[in-house]
Amino acid sequence: MLNFDFYNPTQIVFGKDRLGELDNLIPKEARVLILYGGGSIKKYGTLEKVKENLKNRVVFEFGGIEPNPKFSTLMKAVDVVKSEDINFLLAVGGGSVMDGTKFVAIASKYIGQNPEKLLEYGFENVPVDCAIPLATIVTLPATGSEMNNGAVISHNGKKVPVFSSHTFPKFSILDPELTYSLPTTQVANGIVDTFIHTVEQYVTFPAEGRFQDRTAEGILLTLIEIGKKTIENPTDYDSRANLMWCATMALNGLIGAGVPQDWSTHMIGHDITALFGIDHAKSLAILQPAIWEIRKEQKKLKLLQYAERVWNIKEGSDDEKITLAILKTREFFESLGIKTYLSDYEIKEEQIEDILKSLELNKRTHLSETGDLTLDITRKILKKALKK
Ligand code: NZQ
Ligand code: ZN
What we know:
Blueprint: E1 11-14, H1 22-25, E2 31-35, H2 40-43, H3 46-53, E3 58-62, H4 71-83, E4 88-93, H5 95-107, E5 134-138, E6 150-155, E7 158-163, E8 171-174, H6 184-200, H7 210-232, H8 237-250, H9 264-276, H10 280-294, H11 300-309, H12 318-335, H13 352-361, H14 375-386
Parallel strand pairs: 1-8, 2-3, 2-4, 4-5, 5-8
Antiparallel strand pairs: 6-7
Helix pairs in contact: 4-5, 6-7, 6-8, 6-10, 7-8, 9-10, 9-13, 10-12, 10-14, 11-12, 13-14
Zinc ion binds next to helix 6.
């Protein structure tokens, strides 16, 4: 097992009817800014309930954070924070709202410098000493943003990660019932995003991380068990609760501690989303099977473990087992209604070069758990991902 630090200070408040806790969790004297997206929380009554439970606190609202949240939108929220002397941020929404709120939390304290600089640090922590405290109320289980310190921000046609040790939410409220209103395609996105977060930290090379591997396998098996069920029965509480907890645990540092991590699928996926506007999870569903096809040798031992322990494939040669596991993964995504080829999203062969140019510009040229995934290999992956 590799050396690691594990630190996660976020309090999780899980279950039905937990919004009443807001009164205990947020300081009484706080000046609160509620941040949200395009309006789903208004439509389904969540905003009203949140405001009721904030009681007599001074409360402001900032709506309109779009999917793949934009720097320019978030800077408008920073203006509100400054002009209204806000000292607590409450994100109510999915990954985009939570990520956007994290960015607002640090940009509001980045005094005297151009906040665009905050987009230049990649996976390193940005150099800030503090942030406005933030918390989240999750309405879309997918990204794990509710229990990590990462954000992904869009600016000038790029999607970039932003990390800070100051952006762990103070608390996150996870009420599965708040997700019942999700459209089917967003639930499917959540399942796929959680699945890929898990395999990016699991299908690498063996590192004797037995707890991490078994936990990753537990998440994957749970997703396979409840995936279709929670799409077909949106108000089946236990299926939705299991999805929600898997999404949080897949990206809160637990399964990735002490083991190699890949993240190629996410890095290439971000450029596909930035160029073509394809949902985050859908970009991942296109890439993952193709990446494994091309990287069978480098990932052989973990792909075999994945085939045997997750898909229960015990017969055949190593290559047959791996091929079948990749096929079953693709079929799982498709069974949720998520298409897995670039051509399904009207992307043509000549546009592969645009993706590669973007990756080069964004310095995504040495990806994978060993840094050996070059643009030439990515070209092969994208060609494999083009069509059936
Ligand atoms: O904006 P509203 O009107 O709220 O509608 C949203 C949005 O259109 C809707 N929605 C959310 N909750 C709903 C609902 N509709 C009905 N009922 C509800 N309960 O869903 C749509 C998509 O929301 P979004 O937040 O964009 O989706 P998701 O949670 O999948 O987040 C994706 C973003 O998170 C980033 C992605 O790159 C992308 O920008 N990620 C963040 C990560 C992190 N912080 O650790 C890791 C991930 O890998 C990912 O990169
Ligand atoms: Zn993701």
